[in-house]
């Protein structure tokens, strides 16, 4: 499978562009809470990226509280953390 149609922007690392694409899909509800997001291997196939690039995407999604990874099961969208206004 070729890339998902991202227009790669020069000067922006590919992992950032893929991260933003997946984050946007989560924010738009294309991936709901509890849904499995594409694995690192699937990201390679979908976007035509390297393993290390896919790993960076997953790491950033976890660090930003968007997904959790269960070893042997996959990575899943989680409820966003509550934010306070003050």
Q: Poorly predicted ranges (pLDDT <50, ≥5 residues)?
A: none
**In which order are the strands of the major sheet placed?**
1-2
Number of strands: 2
Could you spell the SSE succession in H and E letters?
HHHEE
Largest sheet: 2 strands, antiparallel
> Quick one: overall form?
globular
Our estimate of the beta-strand percent is 5-15%
Assembly of the depicted chains: single chain
- Which percent bin holds the helix content? 40-55%
> Could you report the average pLDDT, rounded to the nearest whole number?
91
Task: Provide an overview of this structure.
Helix content is 41%, strand content 9%. The chain has 3 helices and 2 strands, in the order H-H-H-E-E. The protein has helices at residues 14-27, 40-47, 51-63; strands spanning 67-70, 74-77. Strand 1 and strand 2 form a beta hairpin. The mean pLDDT is 91.
Write the layout of secondary structure elements.
Layout: H1 14-27, H2 40-47, H3 51-63, E1 67-70, E2 74-77
Antiparallel strand pairs: 1-2
Helix pairs in contact: 1-3, 2-3
Summarize this entry quickly.
Helix content is 41%, strand content 9%. The protein has 86 residues and is mostly helical.
Salient structural properties:
single chain; 86 residues; mainly alpha; two-stranded antiparallel sheet; globular
């Amino acid at each position: 499978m070729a890339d998902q149609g991202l227009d790669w922007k020069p000067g922006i690392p590919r992992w950032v562009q893929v991260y933003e694409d997946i984050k946007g899909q989560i924010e738009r509800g294309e991936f709901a809470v509890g849904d499995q997001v594409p694995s690192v291997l699937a990201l390679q196939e979908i976007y035509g990226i390297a393993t290390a690039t896919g790993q960076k995407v997953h790491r950033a999604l976890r660090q930003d509280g968007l997904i959790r990874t269960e070893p042997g099961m996959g990575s899943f969208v989680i409820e966003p953390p509550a934010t306070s206004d003050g």
